[in-house]
Amino acid sequence: MEIFNSKYLKPFKNIYVIVLVVFMVWMLFFDAHSWLFHHELNTDIEELEYQKEHYRNEMAKDDKAIKELSTEEGIERTARENYYMKKPNEDIYIIEYEDSLVKQKQDE
């Protein structure tokens, strides 16, 4: 019976301490407003904030592209650079630099 008379268990003989410990465990882990639930919600909020910033950046990029394509020069530049279109009787030369080429691995 020395186990129950231990100095570490002495505070747990008081009913108020027992009730307080049970209340704290209940509020931290089992309640609808528990710490675990709030931690999960905060993680979701952070992820949604990141997605919101990403989509704002994408919208800004798209607005810039729309503004560029609203002029005749912008349409022509986009057609030439991205789709390699050309005017009749015109030659296009594509220059690739050595550092921009993807180096292929040679199997030995």
Could you say which structural class the secondary elements and strand pairing correspond to? mainly alpha
Strand composition percent = under 5%
Name the helicity range: 55-70%
Q: What gross morphology would you assign?
A: rod-shaped
Q: What is the β-strand count? A: 0
Distance between the termini: 77 Å
Radius of gyration: 34 Å
Biggest sheet character: none
> What is the succession of H and E elements?
HHH
Calculate the mean pLDDT score and round it: 82
- Low-confidence region ranges: none
* Count of helical stretches: 3
Write structural notes for this entry.
Helices cover 58% and strands 0% of the residues. The protein has 108 residues and is mainly alpha-helical. The chain has helices at residues 15-30, 35-69, 72-83. It has 3 helices and no strands. Pfam families: DivIC. This is Septum formation initiator family protein. The chain crosses the membrane at residues 12-30.
Feature tags:
108 residues, mainly alpha, 3 helices
What is the element layout, followed by pairings?
Layout: H1 15-30, H2 35-69, H3 72-83
Keywords: Coiled coil, Membrane, Transmembrane, Transmembrane helix
Protein name: Septum formation initiator family protein
Pfam families: DivIC (PF04977)
Concise summary:
By secondary structure, this protein is an all-alpha fold. The chain contains three helices and no strands. Residues 38-72 form a coiled coil.
